[in-house]
Amino acid sequence: MARPAQHVFRDARPAVPTVLELLKPVTWFPPMWAFFCGVVSSGVPAAGHWLTIFAGVLLAGPLVCGTSQAVNDWYDRHVDAINEPRRPIPSGRVPGHWGLYIAIAWTLVSLAVAAMLGPLVFGAAVFGLALAWAYSAPPIRLKGNGWWGNAAVALCYEGLPWFTAAAVMLGTLPDSRILALALVYSAGAHGIMTLNDFKSVEGDRRMGVGSLPVRLGVSAAAWVACAVMAVAQVVVIGLLLAWGAPMHALAIGGLLLVQLAMMARLLRRPSELDYWYNATGVPLYVAGMLVSAFAVRTMV
């Protein structure tokens, strides 16, 4: 009788590829990119810091962001059963409470890696992980309100990794110009998070999740998302001009003009073109992040 019991126990464990799917590698790029922007903006040469940079990128993407995805999938498993029934948890490929166990374990691994990078990084990781749990888990569950929930995710995806990278490279708090760019781009990323909510409108509405497409309607939410992204970049352009970086400001202005043309198309059919804009317009937004990082690199 022992053999069948052991066999059942083995089968109850999620496969490694399924665990990787739960951690959603496709979502790791934004915080990893933001971390890279933070490294560039610090003005510190990367030579001699490669191990630290690698550990930081690992922390920003696979660890902290991966944790947030596992936490979100666990607490959203009922919503995903409607919107995305093939996801690892609602499909049963991550059985029982394994989704929760993975989220807890990844949180602890993230904290351990962050502790090795110093107190500033550890503090930033604690803050980011706390927001990740608060976003999805009751009783706070920030995602129940699209305004607050998207703000939390945008900050963790863009501003926090940028700040963390600059802090670890400089060994101290970053320059105020670096902090300003990180915060403004985080504010603009609120619009990106709103577009990401378009795919789950039906399940969110039925389960009482107050995303902006549910609260405002898809059309109005698309207008808000585009306005937020555009205004943030206008603010960045103004900051760069004030800081004496007109060529970098011009480059971001060019990127913004292309985005505005694409936004005009998105707004005509937001329910159909949200994936298209995420694949084409958002990369231009994040390209501007790197341009601005190079701009302040020579100032700090």
Short structural summary:
With 300 residues, this protein is mainly alpha-helical.
Helices and strands, with pairings:
Layout: H1 2-11, H2 16-22, H3 29-42, H4 50-75, H5 77-83, H6 98-116, H7 119-136, H8 146-170, H9 176-196, H10 201-207, H11 212-216, H12 218-242, H13 246-268, H14 270-297
Name the descriptors.
300 residues; mainly alpha
Can you describe what's shown?
The protein contains 14 helices and no strands. Helices cover 78% and strands 0% of the residues. It has a single domain (9-297), classed as Farnesyl Diphosphate Synthase (Orthogonal Bundle). The chain is mainly α and 300 residues long. Helix 4 runs antiparallel to helix 6 and helix 12 packs antiparallel against helix 13 (246-268). The model is unreliable at 1-10 (pLDDT under 50). It has helices at residues 2-11, 16-22, 29-42, 50-75, 77-83, 98-116, 119-136, 146-170, 176-196, 201-207, 212-216, 218-242, 246-268, 270-297.
